[in-house]
Protein backbone atom coordinates (compact mmCIF):
# COMPACT_ATOMS: atom_id res chain seq x y z
CA UNK A 1 0.00 0.00 0.00
CA UNK A 2 1.17 3.53 -0.71
CA UNK A 3 1.06 4.67 2.92
CA UNK A 4 3.77 7.30 2.44
CA UNK A 5 2.79 11.00 2.19
CA UNK A 6 2.50 12.45 -1.30
CA UNK A 7 4.58 15.51 -0.29
CA UNK A 8 8.12 15.23 1.02
CA UNK A 9 8.72 16.06 4.68
CA UNK A 10 10.95 18.93 3.53
CA UNK A 11 8.02 20.39 1.55
CA UNK A 12 5.73 20.04 4.53
CA UNK A 13 8.24 21.93 6.69
CA UNK A 14 8.31 24.76 4.14
CA UNK A 15 4.53 24.71 4.06
CA UNK A 16 4.37 25.04 7.84
CA UNK A 17 6.73 28.04 7.71
CA UNK A 18 4.58 29.70 5.04
CA UNK A 19 1.45 29.25 7.15
CA UNK A 20 3.27 30.72 10.17
CA UNK A 21 4.33 33.71 8.03
CA UNK A 22 0.73 34.25 6.95
CA UNK A 23 -0.53 34.19 10.55
CA UNK A 24 2.17 36.71 11.44
CA UNK A 25 1.10 38.92 8.52
CA UNK A 26 -2.44 39.12 9.89
CA UNK A 27 -1.33 39.40 13.50
CA UNK A 28 0.65 42.50 12.56
CA UNK A 29 -2.37 43.98 10.82
CA UNK A 30 -4.62 43.16 13.75
CA UNK A 31 -6.86 40.92 11.70
CA UNK A 32 -8.60 38.39 13.94
CA UNK A 33 -8.31 34.68 13.14
CA UNK A 34 -11.70 32.94 13.18
CA UNK A 35 -13.10 29.48 12.67
CA UNK A 36 -16.47 28.87 11.05
CA UNK A 37 -18.41 25.67 10.35
CA UNK A 38 -17.24 23.13 7.82
CA UNK A 39 -20.67 21.49 7.85
CA UNK A 40 -23.54 23.76 6.94
CA UNK A 41 -27.29 23.38 6.52
CA UNK A 42 -27.19 25.35 3.28
CA UNK A 43 -24.66 25.77 0.51
CA UNK A 44 -23.71 27.86 -2.49
CA UNK A 45 -25.99 28.11 -5.50
CA UNK A 46 -23.07 28.66 -7.94
CA UNK A 47 -23.90 26.67 -11.08
CA UNK A 48 -20.32 25.49 -11.50
CA UNK A 49 -19.66 24.28 -7.96
CA UNK A 50 -20.47 20.75 -6.85
CA UNK A 51 -20.87 20.25 -3.13
CA UNK A 52 -20.31 17.23 -0.92
CA UNK A 53 -23.27 16.27 1.20
CA UNK A 54 -23.56 14.21 4.33
CA UNK A 55 -26.31 13.37 6.79
CA UNK A 56 -26.40 14.28 10.45
CA UNK A 57 -28.34 11.90 12.66
CA UNK A 58 -28.63 12.75 16.35
CA UNK A 59 -30.71 14.43 19.04
CA UNK A 60 -33.39 16.47 17.32
CA UNK A 61 -32.52 14.96 13.95
CA UNK A 62 -33.54 11.34 14.32
CA UNK A 63 -34.61 11.17 10.68
CA UNK A 64 -31.39 12.70 9.48
CA UNK A 65 -30.55 16.26 8.49
CA UNK A 66 -28.72 16.96 5.26
CA UNK A 67 -25.52 18.94 5.79
CA UNK A 68 -23.17 20.32 3.15
CA UNK A 69 -19.38 20.52 3.34
CA UNK A 70 -18.46 24.14 2.81
CA UNK A 71 -17.00 25.13 -0.59
CA UNK A 72 -15.61 28.30 1.03
CA UNK A 73 -16.12 29.94 4.45
CA UNK A 74 -17.54 33.07 2.82
CA UNK A 75 -21.14 33.00 4.06
CA UNK A 76 -20.29 32.36 7.70
CA UNK A 77 -17.51 34.92 7.70
CA UNK A 78 -19.87 37.53 6.29
CA UNK A 79 -22.32 36.76 9.08
CA UNK A 80 -19.50 37.48 11.54
CA UNK A 81 -18.82 40.78 9.78
CA UNK A 82 -22.52 41.67 9.98
CA UNK A 83 -22.35 40.88 13.69
CA UNK A 84 -19.53 43.41 14.12
CA UNK A 85 -16.38 41.25 14.07
CA UNK A 86 -14.24 43.78 12.24
CA UNK A 87 -11.34 42.51 10.08
CA UNK A 88 -11.14 38.70 10.10
CA UNK A 89 -9.21 35.90 8.42
CA UNK A 90 -9.38 32.14 8.33
CA UNK A 91 -7.24 29.30 7.03
CA UNK A 92 -9.44 26.26 6.69
CA UNK A 93 -10.36 23.28 4.57
CA UNK A 94 -12.82 23.78 1.74
CA UNK A 95 -14.42 20.94 -0.22
CA UNK A 96 -15.42 20.80 -3.85
CA UNK A 97 -16.71 17.71 -5.54
CA UNK A 98 -15.70 16.72 -9.08
CA UNK A 99 -12.41 18.62 -8.77
CA UNK A 100 -9.15 16.73 -9.00
CA UNK A 101 -6.05 17.33 -11.06
CA UNK A 102 -2.71 19.13 -11.09
CA UNK A 103 -4.21 22.22 -9.41
CA UNK A 104 -7.16 20.59 -7.65
CA UNK A 105 -7.76 18.22 -4.78
CA UNK A 106 -11.37 17.70 -3.64
CA UNK A 107 -10.41 19.06 -0.21
CA UNK A 108 -7.97 21.92 -0.08
CA UNK A 109 -6.82 24.71 2.21
CA UNK A 110 -8.20 28.16 1.67
CA UNK A 111 -7.08 31.43 3.16
CA UNK A 112 -9.95 33.89 3.25
CA UNK A 113 -9.94 37.37 4.72
CA UNK A 114 -12.14 40.45 4.94
CA UNK A 115 -11.15 44.07 5.53
CA UNK A 116 -13.82 46.63 6.45
CA UNK A 117 -13.49 49.97 4.62
CA UNK A 118 -11.41 48.38 1.85
CA UNK A 119 -12.54 48.23 -1.76
CA UNK A 120 -11.30 45.74 -4.37
CA UNK A 121 -8.34 47.95 -5.33
CA UNK A 122 -7.10 48.37 -1.74
CA UNK A 123 -7.39 44.65 -1.23
CA UNK A 124 -5.45 43.92 -4.45
CA UNK A 125 -2.59 45.87 -2.87
CA UNK A 126 -2.78 43.88 0.34
CA UNK A 127 -2.80 40.53 -1.51
CA UNK A 128 0.21 41.78 -3.45
CA UNK A 129 2.04 42.60 -0.21
CA UNK A 130 1.39 39.09 1.10
CA UNK A 131 2.69 37.54 -2.16
CA UNK A 132 5.82 39.69 -2.02
CA UNK A 133 6.50 38.40 1.49
CA UNK A 134 5.72 34.72 0.84
CA UNK A 135 6.94 34.35 -2.73
CA UNK A 136 9.49 37.16 -2.92
CA UNK A 137 7.75 38.47 -6.03
CA UNK A 138 7.90 41.96 -7.48
CA UNK A 139 4.91 44.24 -7.18
CA UNK A 140 2.07 42.84 -9.31
CA UNK A 141 0.65 44.07 -12.60
CA UNK A 142 -2.93 45.32 -12.41
CA UNK A 143 -5.18 45.26 -15.47
CA UNK A 144 -8.89 45.17 -16.24
CA UNK A 145 -10.61 42.16 -17.79
CA UNK A 146 -11.56 44.38 -20.72
CA UNK A 147 -7.97 45.58 -21.34
CA UNK A 148 -6.75 41.96 -21.31
CA UNK A 149 -9.21 40.88 -24.00
CA UNK A 150 -8.44 43.96 -26.08
CA UNK A 151 -4.69 43.32 -25.81
CA UNK A 152 -4.62 39.58 -26.50
CA UNK A 153 -7.71 39.07 -28.67
CA UNK A 154 -8.68 42.52 -29.95
CA UNK A 155 -12.10 41.83 -28.53
CA UNK A 156 -14.11 44.04 -26.22
CA UNK A 157 -15.75 41.50 -23.88
CA UNK A 158 -18.21 44.08 -22.54
CA UNK A 159 -19.71 45.34 -25.79
CA UNK A 160 -19.28 42.25 -28.01
CA UNK A 161 -22.33 40.11 -28.66
CA UNK A 162 -22.10 36.32 -28.63
CA UNK A 163 -21.57 36.06 -32.39
CA UNK A 164 -18.56 38.37 -32.25
CA UNK A 165 -17.06 36.30 -29.42
CA UNK A 166 -17.78 33.10 -31.33
CA UNK A 167 -15.97 34.49 -34.40
CA UNK A 168 -12.91 35.15 -32.27
CA UNK A 169 -13.06 31.70 -30.66
CA UNK A 170 -13.67 29.61 -33.81
CA UNK A 171 -10.15 29.85 -35.31
CA UNK A 172 -8.72 28.30 -32.12
CA UNK A 173 -10.61 25.10 -32.96
CA UNK A 174 -11.42 24.35 -29.32
CA UNK A 175 -14.25 21.97 -30.02
CA UNK A 176 -17.78 21.52 -31.28
CA UNK A 177 -19.43 23.35 -28.38
CA UNK A 178 -18.10 26.71 -29.64
CA UNK A 179 -20.48 26.55 -32.62
CA UNK A 180 -23.59 25.94 -30.54
CA UNK A 181 -22.77 27.57 -27.21
CA UNK A 182 -25.48 30.01 -26.17
CA UNK A 183 -23.76 31.32 -23.04
CA UNK A 184 -21.49 34.29 -23.68
CA UNK A 185 -19.58 33.73 -20.44
CA UNK A 186 -18.70 30.14 -21.31
CA UNK A 187 -17.02 31.33 -24.52
CA UNK A 188 -15.27 34.18 -22.69
CA UNK A 189 -14.06 31.76 -20.00
CA UNK A 190 -12.79 29.36 -22.64
CA UNK A 191 -10.80 32.14 -24.34
CA UNK A 192 -9.57 33.36 -20.98
CA UNK A 193 -8.38 29.91 -19.81
CA UNK A 194 -6.75 28.72 -22.99
CA UNK A 195 -5.59 31.85 -24.81
CA UNK A 196 -5.05 34.62 -22.27
CA UNK A 197 -4.09 32.86 -19.03
CA UNK A 198 -1.05 31.05 -20.48
CA UNK A 199 0.36 34.44 -21.55
CA UNK A 200 -0.08 36.49 -18.38
CA UNK A 201 1.57 36.64 -14.95
CA UNK A 202 4.70 34.87 -16.11
CA UNK A 203 7.31 37.20 -14.59
CA UNK A 204 5.29 38.58 -11.69
CA UNK A 205 1.76 38.11 -10.41
CA UNK A 206 -1.06 39.88 -12.22
CA UNK A 207 -4.34 41.07 -10.76
CA UNK A 208 -7.23 41.14 -13.23
CA UNK A 209 -10.21 43.22 -12.10
CA UNK A 210 -13.60 44.46 -13.24
CA UNK A 211 -14.98 41.16 -14.47
CA UNK A 212 -18.19 41.28 -16.55
CA UNK A 213 -21.29 41.79 -14.39
CA UNK A 214 -22.52 38.37 -15.55
CA UNK A 215 -19.51 36.87 -13.71
CA UNK A 216 -19.95 39.00 -10.60
CA UNK A 217 -20.54 36.14 -8.15
CA UNK A 218 -20.78 37.99 -4.80
CA UNK A 219 -19.14 41.24 -5.88
CA UNK A 220 -20.90 44.58 -6.11
CA UNK A 221 -21.33 46.16 -9.52
CA UNK A 222 -19.22 49.18 -10.34
CA UNK A 223 -21.31 52.28 -9.73
CA UNK A 224 -19.72 54.13 -12.68
CA UNK A 225 -19.99 51.26 -15.18
CA UNK A 226 -22.62 48.67 -14.33
CA UNK A 227 -21.35 46.35 -17.07
CA UNK A 228 -18.57 45.31 -14.69
CA UNK A 229 -18.35 43.91 -11.18
CA UNK A 230 -15.77 44.83 -8.57
CA UNK A 231 -14.27 41.37 -8.64
CA UNK A 232 -10.59 40.52 -9.08
CA UNK A 233 -8.45 37.45 -9.62
CA UNK A 234 -4.72 36.90 -9.20
CA UNK A 235 -2.75 34.76 -11.66
CA UNK A 236 0.88 33.79 -11.44
CA UNK A 237 2.88 31.32 -13.53
CA UNK A 238 -0.15 29.51 -14.92
CA UNK A 239 -1.91 29.26 -11.56
CA UNK A 240 -5.15 30.97 -10.60
CA UNK A 241 -4.29 31.99 -7.07
CA UNK A 242 -6.94 34.23 -5.53
CA UNK A 243 -10.41 35.61 -6.11
CA UNK A 244 -11.72 38.70 -4.36
CA UNK A 245 -14.66 41.08 -4.27
CA UNK A 246 -15.65 44.50 -3.14
CA UNK A 247 -18.47 42.74 -1.37
CA UNK A 248 -22.09 43.06 -2.37
CA UNK A 249 -24.01 44.56 0.59
CA UNK A 250 -27.49 44.62 -0.88
CA UNK A 251 -29.54 41.72 0.55
CA UNK A 252 -32.24 41.93 -2.13
CA UNK A 253 -29.77 41.82 -4.98
CA UNK A 254 -27.89 38.94 -3.33
CA UNK A 255 -31.12 36.97 -3.01
CA UNK A 256 -31.96 37.70 -6.66
CA UNK A 257 -28.56 36.35 -7.72
CA UNK A 258 -29.04 33.15 -5.71
CA UNK A 259 -32.47 32.68 -7.28
CA UNK A 260 -31.06 33.37 -10.74
CA UNK A 261 -28.37 30.69 -10.12
CA UNK A 262 -31.08 28.23 -9.20
CA UNK A 263 -33.02 29.06 -12.37
CA UNK A 264 -29.87 28.34 -14.38
CA UNK A 265 -29.39 25.12 -12.42
CA UNK A 266 -32.92 24.09 -13.33
CA UNK A 267 -32.27 24.84 -17.03
CA UNK A 268 -29.05 22.82 -16.96
CA UNK A 269 -30.74 19.87 -15.28
CA UNK A 270 -28.87 20.35 -11.99
CA UNK A 271 -30.38 20.19 -8.52
CA UNK A 272 -31.43 23.52 -7.09
CA UNK A 273 -29.55 24.37 -3.91
CA UNK A 274 -31.13 25.58 -0.67
CA UNK A 275 -30.64 29.33 -0.35
CA UNK A 276 -28.81 30.53 2.75
CA UNK A 277 -31.49 32.81 4.22
CA UNK A 278 -29.39 33.34 7.35
CA UNK A 279 -26.85 35.12 5.14
CA UNK A 280 -29.60 37.14 3.45
CA UNK A 281 -30.92 38.22 6.85
CA UNK A 282 -27.45 39.14 8.01
CA UNK A 283 -26.97 41.29 4.89
CA UNK A 284 -30.35 42.91 5.53
CA UNK A 285 -29.16 43.71 9.05
CA UNK A 286 -26.10 45.31 7.45
CA UNK A 287 -22.75 44.21 6.05
CA UNK A 288 -20.07 46.84 6.61
CA UNK A 289 -18.50 48.23 3.46
CA UNK A 290 -15.68 45.73 2.94
CA UNK A 291 -13.60 43.71 0.53
CA UNK A 292 -12.80 40.03 0.87
CA UNK A 293 -10.58 37.53 -0.89
CA UNK A 294 -10.01 33.77 -1.00
CA UNK A 295 -6.53 32.48 -1.75
CA UNK A 296 -5.56 28.85 -2.35
CA UNK A 297 -2.87 27.95 0.18
CA UNK A 298 -1.86 24.75 -1.59
CA UNK A 299 -1.32 26.64 -4.82
CA UNK A 300 0.62 29.34 -2.99
CA UNK A 301 2.92 26.66 -1.58
CA UNK A 302 3.22 25.10 -5.06
CA UNK A 303 4.46 28.45 -6.36
CA UNK A 304 6.80 28.97 -3.40
CA UNK A 305 8.34 25.51 -3.82
CA UNK A 306 8.14 25.47 -7.63
CA UNK A 307 6.07 22.28 -7.67
CA UNK A 308 3.82 21.50 -10.61
CA UNK A 309 1.33 19.17 -8.90
CA UNK A 310 -0.80 19.88 -5.84
CA UNK A 311 -0.07 16.40 -4.46
CA UNK A 312 3.55 17.51 -3.92
CA UNK A 313 2.54 20.12 -1.33
CA UNK A 314 -0.23 18.37 0.65
CA UNK A 315 0.48 15.56 3.07
CA UNK A 316 -1.86 13.04 1.51
CA UNK A 317 -3.73 13.76 -1.70
CA UNK A 318 -7.12 12.13 -2.24
CA UNK A 319 -5.62 9.07 -3.92
CA UNK A 320 -3.73 8.26 -0.70
CA UNK A 321 -6.18 9.56 1.87
CA UNK B 1 -27.08 3.48 -25.76
CA UNK B 2 -24.23 3.59 -23.23
CA UNK B 3 -22.72 7.01 -22.58
CA UNK B 4 -19.75 8.35 -20.65
CA UNK B 5 -19.39 11.76 -19.02
CA UNK B 6 -16.18 13.77 -18.84
CA UNK B 7 -15.70 12.57 -15.26
CA UNK B 8 -15.17 9.05 -16.59
CA UNK B 9 -12.53 10.15 -19.08
CA UNK B 10 -9.27 8.25 -18.78
CA UNK B 11 -6.52 7.21 -21.13
CA UNK B 12 -7.61 4.42 -23.44
CA UNK B 13 -11.35 5.12 -23.13
CA UNK B 14 -13.10 4.45 -26.44
CA UNK B 15 -15.85 6.88 -27.36
CA UNK B 16 -17.65 8.30 -30.38
CA UNK B 17 -16.13 11.65 -31.28
CA UNK B 18 -17.32 13.65 -34.29
CA UNK B 19 -19.10 10.51 -35.43
CA UNK B 20 -16.00 8.33 -35.38
CA UNK B 21 -14.74 5.72 -32.92
CA UNK B 22 -11.90 7.36 -31.01
CA UNK B 23 -9.68 6.77 -28.03
CA UNK B 24 -8.50 9.22 -25.36
CA UNK B 25 -4.74 9.63 -25.16
CA UNK B 26 -4.53 12.49 -22.64
CA UNK B 27 -7.06 14.23 -20.44
CA UNK B 28 -6.67 17.27 -18.19
CA UNK B 29 -9.36 19.19 -16.34
CA UNK B 30 -9.18 22.96 -16.31
CA UNK B 31 -11.48 24.50 -13.71
CA UNK B 32 -11.58 28.20 -12.93
CA UNK B 33 -12.65 28.99 -9.35
CA UNK B 34 -15.70 30.75 -10.75
CA UNK B 35 -17.11 29.50 -13.99
CA UNK B 36 -17.25 26.70 -16.50
CA UNK B 37 -14.86 23.74 -16.17
CA UNK B 38 -13.31 22.27 -19.31
CA UNK B 39 -11.58 19.04 -20.22
CA UNK B 40 -8.56 19.45 -22.44
CA UNK B 41 -8.19 16.15 -24.26
CA UNK B 42 -5.97 14.54 -26.85
CA UNK B 43 -8.00 12.10 -28.90
CA UNK B 44 -6.99 9.61 -31.56
CA UNK B 45 -9.51 8.70 -34.21
CA UNK B 46 -9.16 4.96 -34.58
CA UNK B 47 -9.93 4.61 -38.28
CA UNK B 48 -7.75 7.41 -39.64
CA UNK B 49 -5.22 7.45 -36.79
CA UNK B 50 -5.56 11.22 -36.72
CA UNK B 51 -4.75 12.84 -33.35
CA UNK B 52 -6.74 15.91 -32.28
CA UNK B 53 -6.48 18.30 -29.34
CA UNK B 54 -9.90 19.44 -28.22
CA UNK B 55 -11.62 21.32 -25.44
CA UNK B 56 -14.82 19.87 -24.04
CA UNK B 57 -17.21 21.43 -21.54
CA UNK B 58 -17.00 19.32 -18.38
CA UNK B 59 -20.21 17.43 -17.76
CA UNK B 60 -20.93 16.68 -21.41
CA UNK B 61 -21.71 13.09 -22.32
CA UNK B 62 -20.47 10.98 -25.19
CA UNK B 63 -21.64 7.75 -26.69
CA UNK B 64 -19.38 4.82 -25.86
CA UNK B 65 -17.78 3.36 -28.98
CA UNK B 66 -18.55 -0.33 -29.41
CA UNK B 67 -14.92 -1.21 -29.97
CA UNK B 68 -13.26 -4.50 -29.06
CA UNK B 69 -9.98 -6.16 -29.83
CA UNK B 70 -9.48 -9.86 -30.51
CA UNK B 71 -6.55 -12.12 -31.34
CA UNK B 72 -7.12 -13.88 -34.66
CA UNK B 73 -4.75 -15.82 -36.88
CA UNK B 74 -4.21 -14.77 -40.47
CA UNK B 75 -5.40 -17.27 -43.07
CA UNK B 76 -5.15 -15.90 -46.60
CA UNK B 77 -5.88 -13.03 -48.97
CA UNK B 78 -8.43 -13.68 -51.74
CA UNK B 79 -7.45 -10.60 -53.71
CA UNK B 80 -10.08 -8.39 -52.11
CA UNK B 81 -10.27 -9.43 -48.47
CA UNK B 82 -7.84 -10.66 -45.88
CA UNK B 83 -9.29 -13.56 -43.89
CA UNK B 84 -8.65 -14.20 -40.19
CA UNK B 85 -9.82 -16.95 -37.88
CA UNK B 86 -10.48 -17.35 -34.17
CA UNK B 87 -8.45 -20.44 -33.23
CA UNK B 88 -10.93 -21.48 -30.55
CA UNK B 89 -14.32 -20.89 -32.16
CA UNK B 90 -13.06 -21.24 -35.77
CA UNK B 91 -15.15 -18.19 -36.56
CA UNK B 92 -13.77 -16.29 -39.53
CA UNK B 93 -13.64 -12.56 -40.22
CA UNK B 94 -12.72 -10.77 -43.45
CA UNK B 95 -10.96 -7.40 -43.34
CA UNK B 96 -10.79 -5.02 -46.28
CA UNK B 97 -7.74 -3.13 -47.57
CA UNK B 98 -8.66 -0.04 -45.54
CA UNK B 99 -8.58 -1.98 -42.27
CA UNK B 100 -5.42 -3.90 -43.14
CA UNK B 101 -3.57 -0.83 -44.41
CA UNK B 102 0.20 -1.06 -44.06
CA UNK B 103 -0.11 -4.27 -42.04
CA UNK B 104 -0.42 -6.15 -45.34
CA UNK B 105 3.34 -6.32 -45.70
CA UNK B 106 3.72 -8.06 -42.32
CA UNK B 107 0.99 -10.69 -42.62
CA UNK B 108 2.30 -14.24 -42.31
CA UNK B 109 -0.06 -17.20 -42.47
CA UNK B 110 -0.91 -18.62 -39.03
CA UNK B 111 0.48 -15.54 -37.24
CA UNK B 112 -1.83 -14.11 -34.57
CA UNK B 113 -2.85 -10.50 -35.25
CA UNK B 114 -4.91 -8.10 -33.15
CA UNK B 115 -8.09 -7.19 -34.99
CA UNK B 116 -9.94 -4.10 -33.73
CA UNK B 117 -13.68 -4.39 -34.32
CA UNK B 118 -16.08 -1.46 -34.39
CA UNK B 119 -19.74 -2.47 -34.30
CA UNK B 120 -18.49 -5.95 -35.14
CA UNK B 121 -16.58 -4.87 -38.27
CA UNK B 122 -12.78 -4.94 -38.49
CA UNK B 123 -11.29 -1.43 -38.66
CA UNK B 124 -7.65 -2.03 -37.70
CA UNK B 125 -5.33 -4.99 -38.19
CA UNK B 126 -2.25 -4.94 -35.96
CA UNK B 127 0.41 -7.52 -36.86
CA UNK B 128 2.51 -9.24 -34.16
CA UNK B 129 5.42 -7.10 -32.93
CA UNK B 130 7.89 -9.48 -34.57
CA UNK B 131 7.50 -11.52 -37.73
CA UNK B 132 9.83 -13.92 -39.56
CA UNK B 133 10.09 -13.49 -43.32
CA UNK B 134 12.30 -14.87 -46.08
CA UNK B 135 14.54 -12.65 -48.21
CA UNK B 136 13.51 -12.88 -51.86
CA UNK B 137 15.72 -10.22 -53.32
CA UNK B 138 18.89 -8.39 -52.27
CA UNK B 139 22.27 -7.47 -53.73
CA UNK B 140 24.98 -10.05 -53.10
CA UNK B 141 26.99 -9.15 -50.00
CA UNK B 142 30.61 -8.08 -50.18
CA UNK B 143 32.99 -10.79 -49.08
CA UNK B 144 34.55 -10.25 -45.68
CA UNK B 145 31.99 -7.67 -44.55
CA UNK B 146 30.62 -8.64 -41.16
CA UNK B 147 29.07 -5.70 -39.37
CA UNK B 148 26.69 -3.03 -40.59
CA UNK B 149 28.27 -0.24 -42.59
CA UNK B 150 24.91 1.24 -43.45
CA UNK B 151 23.59 -2.00 -44.86
CA UNK B 152 21.52 -2.56 -47.99
CA UNK B 153 17.85 -2.96 -48.87
CA UNK B 154 16.30 -6.42 -48.95
CA UNK B 155 12.89 -7.39 -50.27
CA UNK B 156 11.01 -9.97 -48.20
CA UNK B 157 8.47 -12.58 -49.28
CA UNK B 158 5.53 -10.30 -48.47
CA UNK B 159 6.95 -7.41 -50.49
CA UNK B 160 8.21 -5.49 -47.46
CA UNK B 161 11.56 -3.79 -47.92
CA UNK B 162 13.90 -3.48 -44.93
CA UNK B 163 17.51 -2.41 -44.46
CA UNK B 164 19.71 -5.38 -43.62
CA UNK B 165 23.43 -5.94 -42.95
CA UNK B 166 25.54 -6.58 -46.05
CA UNK B 167 26.09 -10.29 -45.22
CA UNK B 168 22.40 -11.22 -45.60
CA UNK B 169 21.71 -13.47 -48.59
CA UNK B 170 18.65 -14.38 -50.62
CA UNK B 171 16.77 -17.29 -49.03
CA UNK B 172 17.65 -16.41 -45.46
CA UNK B 173 14.84 -15.90 -42.91
CA UNK B 174 14.91 -12.66 -40.92
CA UNK B 175 13.22 -11.49 -37.74
CA UNK B 176 11.76 -8.01 -38.25
CA UNK B 177 10.15 -5.55 -35.81
CA UNK B 178 6.84 -4.57 -37.44
CA UNK B 179 6.45 -1.42 -35.27
CA UNK B 180 9.62 0.16 -36.66
CA UNK B 181 10.07 -1.87 -39.83
CA UNK B 182 13.63 -2.67 -38.72
CA UNK B 183 15.73 -5.80 -39.11
CA UNK B 184 16.37 -7.58 -35.79
CA UNK B 185 18.32 -10.76 -36.54
CA UNK B 186 18.74 -13.82 -38.73
CA UNK B 187 16.67 -16.83 -37.84
CA UNK B 188 18.49 -20.14 -37.96
CA UNK B 189 16.53 -22.87 -39.72
Overview of this structure, please?
The complex is a heterodimer of chains A (321) and B (189). Chain A has 321 residues and is an alpha+beta fold. Helix content of chain A is 36%, strand content 22%. Chain A contains 10 helices and 11 strands. In chain A, the strands form 2 sheets. An 8-stranded mixed beta sheet of chain A has the order 1-5-6-11-10-9-8-7, sandwiched between helices. A 3-stranded antiparallel beta sheet of chain A has the order 2-4-3, with no helix packed on it. In chain A, β3 and β4 form a beta hairpin. In chain A, α2 packs parallel to α9, α5 packs parallel to α7 and α8 packs antiparallel against α9. Chain A starts with 8 loop residues before the first helix and ends in a 16-residue tail after the last helix. The mean pLDDT of chain A is 96. Chain B is an all-beta fold. Chain B folds into 3 domains: 61 residues, SH3 type barrels (Roll); 60 residues, Nucleic acid-binding proteins (OB fold (Dihydrolipoamide Acetyltransferase, E2P)); 58 residues, OB fold (Dihydrolipoamide Acetyltransferase, E2P) (Beta Barrel), CATH 2.40.50. In chain B, the strands form 4 sheets. A 5-stranded antiparallel beta sheet of chain B has the order 9-8-7-10-11. In chain B, a hairpin with a 4-residue loop joins β13 and β14. The longest helix of chain B has 4 residues. Chain B is elongated and about 70 Å long. Chain B starts with a strand and ends with a strand. The mean pLDDT of chain B is 90. The chains are: A alpha+beta (321), B mainly beta (189). Chains A and B meet through α7 of A and β3 and β5 of B.
Amino acid sequence: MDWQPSASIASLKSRARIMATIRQFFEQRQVMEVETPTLSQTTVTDVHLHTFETTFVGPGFADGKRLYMQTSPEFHMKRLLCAGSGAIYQMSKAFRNEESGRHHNPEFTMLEWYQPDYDHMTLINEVDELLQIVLGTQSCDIITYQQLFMTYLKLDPLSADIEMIRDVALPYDFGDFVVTESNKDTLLQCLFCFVIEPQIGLEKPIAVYNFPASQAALAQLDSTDERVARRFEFYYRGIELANGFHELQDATEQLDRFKQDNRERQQDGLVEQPIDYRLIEALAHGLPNCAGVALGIDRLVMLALKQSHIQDVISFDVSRS
Amino acid sequence: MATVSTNEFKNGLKLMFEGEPSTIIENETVKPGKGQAFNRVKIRKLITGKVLEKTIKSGESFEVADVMECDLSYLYNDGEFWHFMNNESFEQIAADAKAVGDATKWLVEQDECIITLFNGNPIIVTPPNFVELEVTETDPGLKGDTAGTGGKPATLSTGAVVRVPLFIQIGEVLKVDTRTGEYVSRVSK
